[in-house]
Design a protein that fits this description.
This protein is an alpha/beta fold and about 180 residues long. It has 7 helices and 7 strands; from the N terminus they run αβαβααβαβββαβα. It starts with 13 loop residues before the first helix and ends with a helix.
Length: about 180
């Protein structure tokens, strides 16, 4: 097998990305401190046509050289906005009709492999990924419509936030496209 050259991948341009139909999904980063995680979420969001990223609290924003190291330019294609307070972002998204899911281990969470989504084209979704140490803030979990948990079977209790984002974004893409 021959590896494909970048020019053979037929990717769209950043300008085309801005106008193409997006997945009805907003990714919210709640106080994510690692710039590499932020950049990785931008890159994954670009790959799966995420509508927008909302950066909250201590989460850094582009332009930033450290974000660019992992985003590789996706910070220019994917729309983003910043909120100082994650709850304010969640309330705004709720008022705009988004169904809000925190990605967190909580009582009665819905396992990712059991999630069911409404394919109604009017239904929009937002997923909230939290801080690398503390996860999604409890007040944000409380404001969510539901929580999704990623099943894990080893000794560790969590995944890296960018890995979690990749799994979640892929699942939403798979269910909504």
């Amino acid at each position: 097998m021959r590896k494909l050259e970048v020019t053979e991948l037929n990717r769209i341009s950043a300008e085309e990305f801005k106008v193409v139909n997006k997945l009805p999904l907003v990714v919210v980063l709640d106080n994510v401190r690692s710039l590499h995680n932020v950049g990785s979420v931008f890159r994954t969001s670009d790959a799966f046509l995420v509508e927008k990223i909302v950066l909250c609290g201590i989460t850094s924003c582009p332009p930033n050289a450290e974000i660019h190291k992992t985003a590789l330019g996706a910070e220019y294609s994917v729309e983003w906005e910043y909120f100082e307070n994650t709850l304010e972002a969640v309330e705004l998204l709720k008022n705009e009709g988004y169904c809000i899911y925190s990605i967190e281990q909580v009582e009665n969470s819905t396992m990712l492999d059991e999630i069911k989504l409404d394919k109604n084209p009017q239904q929009k979704y937002a997923v909230i990924l939290g801080n690398e140490v503390h996860g999604v803030a409890q007040e944000v979990v409380d404001a969510s419509d539901d929580c999704i948990e990623i099943p894990q079977f080893g000794t560790k209790h969590s995944l890296n936030v960018s890995v979690s984002a990749g799994l979640i974004i892929w699942k939403f893409f798979e269910l909504l496209k």
